[in-house]
Predict the 3D structure of the following.
Amino acid sequence: MTSSTSAARLVEIREAALTLFADKGFFGTSMTDIADKLGVKAASLYNHIDSKQEILAEITQDTMRTLIEEHEKAVSSTEDSVEQIRRAMQTHVRWHARHPREVKIGNSEINSLEEPVRTELIEARHRYSEAWKEMIQRGVDQGDLETPSVRLATYALLEMGIGVALWFREGGSLTETEVAYIYGDLAVRLVTKRH
Amino acid sequence: MTSSTSAARLVEIREAALTLFADKGFFGTSMTDIADKLGVKAASLYNHIDSKQEILAEITQDTMRTLIEEHEKAVSSTEDSVEQIRRAMQTHVRWHARHPREVKIGNSEINSLEEPVRTELIEARHRYSEAWKEMIQRGVDQGDLETPSVRLATYALLEMGIGVALWFREGGSLTETEVAYIYGDLAVRLVTKRH
DNA sequence: CCTACCGATCGGTAGG
DNA sequence: CCTACCGATCGGTAGG
């Protein structure tokens, strides 16, 4: 069945590209590099895709969608401000631990994306950041959270969680769950009062 | 004065490359792109440099050296554990606010570097990270600091400060000094006891 | 899926 | 600093 094998090939192409783009960068990866991973010639890839750019666009678009979905689920699972922070960070960390290649590409290849996909990615990131900021602001307004700057606390929390993608490895000294719990704790420390 | 103009040209080449590599990536930047910025032909650059790779190597090597020097100065300026954390983070944040292009290149182009420079950069980063970890460990041992994980607190603190390079712009709503103070405060919160 | 090939561009060299 | 040029490689197409 040509169509089913072709669909499987498409998945294989994306998977190979995901690893190579994360490793060597978009411009550092050639179509021949991708083809070699599948044991075919570069020209054969064009039976499944339109362009190299299209592969990059698909990778970055799928990525933000799942992160925002999981974030919304985490935040709506409790009304307690402190607990929202904890769960949002646990979700944030788990997602980044699971998608190191996508994170690397998203951080390094924004300017390799053509419009309108590039702008769409930037906007999706902004929405995610705004959702965090609003969550923290609500907690501050209710007197449950405290911070010298809602905006900077947002950036600090997001960035420290993104960093997990850079060093976490399955099978290391801590499990994903342990890392998520510790970061949840660190996040709460960062935005709660001392008393 | 061929030699003095030539030295100035070299600085201009590095400066142009710094902006372009940060913007478009090492492989996304051509020698023609760099030459265009200076109003010369690509071939003329080779009167000043040996290769494109050499420019990248020089950028990444100068970078870590100044960061580690400033860190050591900050830490040795006080014996108080909490104050060490605060000053180390202020220094870390100021440095990252001032070197956004170098940070971007350092994060995205490690695998574009050839050996042995690539390994040297990784080792320099490791030394910096270890210095932070030991500083935090000392504070914990003395009973001044508290954290669920010295290692993860180290990663979290480093990464949140690195993130400043991504969004800080001179002339924005907060000055570099204000951002450094707030991050110093956030860092202390992250690793001190509640009481 | 392949071979054969396109024009464009790459980093770098020769020679002046 | 330039022009002229090198071989290699790029992403992508034609045609089977």
